[in-house]
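Operator note (shift B, R.M.): manual run for Viral A-type inclusion protein requested after the automated queue skipped it. Running by hand, logging everything below so the morning shift can see what happened. Input copied straight from the record, untouched. If output looks odd, do not overwrite the archive copy; leave it for review.
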Amino acid sequence: MMKMVKLGDNEVDLDEVFKLEAQFQAIEDAKNFVFEYVDNNTKREIERIESETKSSIAKWVLKVVATVKAAIKSCNFWEAEEKIKLIRKFTRILGNRFEQTSFDDNKEEKTKEETDKISNSIDQLERQLQKVLEEVIEKYKKINLKTSDFNPYASNPPKNLYTKLEKVMHTASTYNYKESWDAIEEDITQKVREQLLEIRKQVKELDSRKLETRIRVCESVLNSLPKHMQEIFGDEIKQCNEDVKYELENILKEVNQVIQKGNAQEIYDLFNRSTSNQRTSIEFGVNKIMEGIISRMDKQWVEEDTAGALDTFAELVRFIKTLKGKIDLDRYFKQACESLENTFDKYQRNIITNFDTLDQDKSMLKWMERAFTF
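Run finished. Output pasted below as returned.
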């Protein structure tokens, strides 16, 4: 009886495979030389053993092929390479000792095609492997980092791919895996550096929140990269962040200095030469100045400092007139006018209410003088 060799998923003892080949040769010799001397039952038994053995081998090859396809699909290139090597070793030793089975996805269930060679099937797997590798490269190249508000590499971190490629890129002879990774790394490197350069250029145009978002995206991308790339870009991203903060501080410093002076003409001049980032701060500062003027005027009305309130009103009007067409301050003018009207109405009601009750003497004249002084 023929002794079977145990076939593993990852490796086979080649000495045992050689023994198996010798046993197949013995069966072939028996069929050629002794079949005419044995009865039909013995012939059928020999053919049954041969058929079952070939069928088991074919099933094993199909099983290994299935694991190769799964490895290719999940980009486990080293595993795929090793198992393709295993099948090649096996078939080189056994040659055509077992029926050739098609490995086409649509015919994987025991479809026998004598014309379909094992070597051709392995070639198909290798072409599939190459195709997947090319698709991975193309997928990363299509990523647009400039328009992303989140890490576009998060779903397929390059560091995971690098881990799978690193094991095979220096050992596999079938493909140049290192060249493929170098293409991916070069593409990512270019995109990250272009993004950092763009951030520096846009410091004066984008508000601080948008700049922070862009930098955070780069920092998030950093976490998706393999260690050797993290070491390179970690310092570059950190330096970019520091440069942006320094530039923003200088931009806001100039704005704060002008706003603190409270001179409308200087604010007007700064606004004309300002960047988009500065304009936001200028508008915020001017609104604070307006609120301060309104608050001061309201206090003066309450304290019956009519002259001071009117001077403040005039100051507000000059301020608004100077910045007209640059910053919309109409609401403050309306607010000041309402305050003036309310004060006038209050004095008018006071005069009407108290006039008939006053004595006809000097005290009445003094009260009237005070009442009309507003």
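Quick read of the result: Residues 92 and 119 are 9 Å apart (CA to CA). The two ends are 126 Å apart (CA to CA).
Leaving this for review. - R.M.
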